[in-house]
Amino acid sequence: MPATIVMGGQWGDEGKGKLTDSLAGSADIVVRANGGANAGHTVQTDQGTFALHLIPSGILNPSCLSIVGAGVVVDPKLILEEIDHLAARGISLEPLRISERAHVVMPYHPVLDGLDEEQRGEGSIGTTLRGIGPAYGDKVARRGLRLVDLVDRETLRHRLHQELPRWNRLLELVYGVQGMDFDTLFAELAGYGERLQRFVCPTEPIISDALSAGRQIIVECAQGAMLDIDYGTYPFVTSSSTSAAGACQGAGVPPTSVDRVLGVYKAYSTRVGAGPLPTELQDATGQLIRDRGHEYGTTTGRPRRTGWFDAVAARHVARLNGISDVALTLLDVFDVFETIQVCIAYEIDGELTDRVPARADQLARALPVYEALPGWRASTVGARRAEELPRPAVDYLRFIEDQIGVPVSLVGVGPGREQIVPLAPPRGSAVSAAPA
Ligand code: GDP
Ligand code: IMO
Ligand code: MG
């Protein structure tokens, strides 16, 4: 069976963790493709709520192999903490594999992340300070250490000898902060390497063999397409490819094996950190969305910025990524709303447009053109079938579908694993409703 990509269609936190967990129930492998501990993927099961950062959201399904792909940047300290935390809660880590090709977030990367943010001053990105940018920077500059280096003491010693002096010169001479001691750093990292060794392996053969055997693979992306390094709101983006193409690359899944790109979108917009969010609501309505959606960061606890659904950005993402169907989450947040707005175009410097400009400053000046839709003022949280959704809620979903140009196949009506409603495609669509 071919692979499915689960990707964020907006600015992250769309509910990818919940959808991945849900699809993992009938899959053999979940591979995380990109990002690092900047991600926070929440899954609610009958065992409680889990916030996953580096470990794939398949881990809560014991029959499913969970692979951290080569495109992920792994902070060894944080992944070990996550492993320990899950183990303490009775979750088996037996199915966990980490690609030997994945890069290591080194202890100096978060330090530089913080210094870079300070230096940006008013123009700061609001990163998660997890060292993501500097770690991907080292990877692309061919200076990075990979897991395969970390788990071999002598290679680690050699690579650290090559890299640390340059880092210390940078920290001390450019930023005027204390460099790092080789012996202390080596001892710390070698300890992590020893503990992680049992999980680290070549993951490409596992994936190739599984595909040849017709097994089902889910590729779990982190972040959202509007935070993509190439197509997001640069420079207010993350440092990896959050796209469907990036998913293939990061997971090691050939594009020809993919037959479904599930775009996860919220029924509204949120964003953590700086950068344009054209539909942002800095008023009581925005606060109501934040309260009802519990819109506080899973990783940093920061309040998320909130706003109406932005169909211009959503369409841009759907086209670029070949999204085959949409999971629209958090519909229940609108259960008390009288009217719901959807942004269908932007007005930028007096011009109407349905395109997302490349320049963040232009997007920041975009005035949303809204279409108002009636709310349903009824609870959807107990709905499990499309017929149980109020008519105006279905109309809202159909409107979003029309705007994005892609069918909505799944609807989220609560954080629980079971709170997903499969939706039959509108007539004439090629995509069939997927089981939750
Ligand atoms: P991710 O990063 O894309 O995995 O998303 P996060 O876990 O950061 O944020 C999504 C939040 O919404 C989490 O707290 C989820 O438990 C919650 N959630 C997901 N789907 C739904 C839904 O349909 N309704 C409600 N009320 N909450 C949801
Ligand atoms: P998940 O996978 C939401 C945002 C940060 C910041 C920008 C760059 O849970 O959807 P970084 O630390 O990556 O250099 O920060 O990207 N960001 C996220 N926002 N959800 C995420 O992950 C995010 N990961 C990074 O807030 O604006
Ligand atoms: Mg998140």
What would you note in describing this structure?
The chain has 436 residues and is α/β, with parallel strands linked by helices. Helices cover 32% and strands 20% of the residues. It is built from 13 helices and 20 strands. The strands form 5 sheets. The chain has a 10-stranded mixed beta sheet, sandwiched between helices. Strand 16 and strand 17 (351-353) form a beta hairpin. Helix 3 (108-120) crosses helix 4 (132-140) and helix 6 (153-174) crosses helix 7 (182-196). It is globular, with a radius of gyration of 22 Å. The two termini are 17 Å apart. Residues 430-436 have low confidence and may be disordered. The structure holds guanosine-5'-diphosphate, 6-O-phosphoryl inosine monophosphate (IMO) and magnesium ion (MG). 6-O-phosphoryl inosine monophosphate (IMO) binds at residues 8, 12-13, 35, 38-41, 125-128, 130, 132-133, 222-224, 227, 238-239, 272-273, 298.
In this entry the ligands are: guanosine-5'-diphosphate, 6-O-phosphoryl inosine monophosphate, magnesium ion
Write down how many β-strands occur, each being a DSSP E stretch of 2 or more residues: 20
How large, in whole angstroms, is the Cα Rg?
22 Å
- Helix content range of the residues, please? 25-40%
Give the low-pLDDT segments: 430-436
Main sheet record: 10 strands, mixed
Broad shape: globular
How would you name the oligomeric state of the polypeptide chains in this document?
single chain
> Gap between N and C termini, in Å?
17 Å
